[in-house]
Amino acid sequence: MYKVIVMETKSKYCLGITDDGSVVKVKKKKGLAIGDKIYVLEEDLYEKKTKPLLFFNSTYKLNALALVLVMIIGISGWLYFPRHKVYATISLDSQGKIQVELDKNKKIVSVHLNNNDISPKELEDLQGKELNDAIRKLVALIAPENHTKISAAIALPKEDENYRSYIEAVLHSYLAGSYILDEDDSEIDSAEIYYNI
C-alpha cells in the first residue's frame, strides 16, 4: 500500500508522488483532484496496455518464414538450372555420337554423349570452354581410334553469319571438308556429311 499525493490528472490516470519521492501512475477515479492524499493498492496502479512488438507478432513470424523459404527456393533454382541459353547445337558422329550445345558467346553450355564408357567428369570439364579450345577433345571422345569419317551437323539461327563462319573455321581447322546444314532438325538427323581427321 502506498500513501500518494495527486500531482496531475490525465484522462485515464493520475500522477502522484509517494512518501519516498517516487512518481507513480494511478488509475483515475471520480472525485480525484490535484493535492488529494490517497492510499493506493497494487491493483490501483495504472498499467498502459502495450501492443506486442512487431517482431514477436505471430503473423510477422509466419510472413518472415515464408519469405525466407521463397528466397531459399529461388536461390536454389537459380543455382541448379543452367543460366546459359543454348544458341547453337553441333552434332558429331563416328563410333559414338556427341552433341555440343553452345551459348551466344561461343562457349560450351553442355555436352551429351551416347557412350556410357565416358565419365561425366570428362564432359563437365568441357563446359565453359570455347569450341575452338575443345574440338580436339570432342573428336577424341567419339573417334578414339582415329577413324577417318566423322559426320557433322550444325543448327543455329540463319541470320548470324559471324557465328556460322566461326563454327566453319573451327571445323576446317581440325577436320578436312565442310558443310553447314540449316537449323531444320530433319536435315540434321539425316545428315551424312563426312569430315576426315
Q: Could you please describe the fold and organization of this structure?
A:
With 197 residues, the chain is α+β, with helices and mostly antiparallel strands. The chain has helices spanning 58-80, 120-126, 131-142, 161-174, 185-189; strands at 2-9, 13-18, 23-27, 37-40, 88-93, 97-102, 108-113, 150-155, 194-195. The strands form two sheets. It has a five-stranded antiparallel beta sheet with strand order 7-6-5-8-9. Helix 3 packs across helix 4. It is rod-shaped and about 110 Å long.
The CA-CA distance between the termini, in Å, is: 105 Å
Order of helices and strands: EEEEHEEEHHEHHE
The side-by-side strand order for the widest beta sheet comes to: 7-6-5-8-9
Shape: rod-shaped
pLDDT averaged residue by residue: 76
Helix content, binned percent: 25-40%
Radius of gyration: 40 Å
Describe the main β-sheet briefly: 5 strands, antiparallel
Number of helices: 5
> Given the helix and strand composition, which structural class is it?
alpha+beta
**Residue runs with pLDDT of under 50 for 5 or more positions:** 177-197
Approximately what portion of the residues adopt beta-strand conformation?
Answer: 15-25%
Total count of strands: 9
